[in-house]
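To whoever is covering the structure queue this week,

Two jobs came back overnight. Logging them here so there's a record in the thread.

Job A:
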Amino acid sequence: MTVASGPTPRLLTAGQLFLDLVFADLTAAPRLGEEHWTPAFGWGPGGIANYAIAAARLGVDTVLCADALVGESLAHQS
């Protein structure tokens, strides 16, 4: 478990943490069984992280509580 230091949080966000995968610049929507290559790909936190990020951007001291393997990976990336 990682414990953050800093100001006492005013908001606790708790819930499922997801990893959002974004494929962009597709020439068309793929049909069942088709494969398409895309030149643009991105990923980022999703789920409860969206609320935590929005609150933090509004200046609210926020902590995130989530139980997910992806969450551990994201926590070490940022």
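Job B:
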Amino acid sequence: MRHRFRHAHDSRGTRLTHAIPEFVGHPYSGDRSHALAGETYTVTETGQLGPSVRTIAPIYDTDGSIVGLVSSGVLLNQIAQENRQQLPGLALIVLALLLMSSLVSYVLARYLSRATNGQAPESLVRAQALNRAVLAEAREGLVLLDELGRPCSPMSALGTFSI
């Protein structure tokens, strides 16, 4: 049995073609009203082959009147089977993304640890608050410059002097 199908019907709903030859000549059991009104539409119905998603469209003759209908579809169990076949590939993609995101998190954590000298976020917040408080209260200050005239920290300035 084929899982994808195309059937033709006359305007009265009599099947002209079918995947199972015994059903040719029998009436179409689904809703044809939209197609008979000139509309192409997609519907989920249970037909002779089982539950399916199908698109039904009108067939026009040269003067523009509807002379028949064509329906094309796929069985729902075939869609489910194709989805199950794609699960291993999808699981592999999810696993690869998980591994990559873990690696990025690890590299970022190491970078941040080095950039903050291993200090915890709480101690960084306290140090920032202390610096702001000291700067807010300072009326006078001293700016240390290196040999090239750039501002530098007291520790680096002390390292340039020799005793």
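Note for Job B: Strands lie at 4-10, 41-47, 50-60, 66-75.

Please reply-all if you pick these up so we don't duplicate work.
Q.
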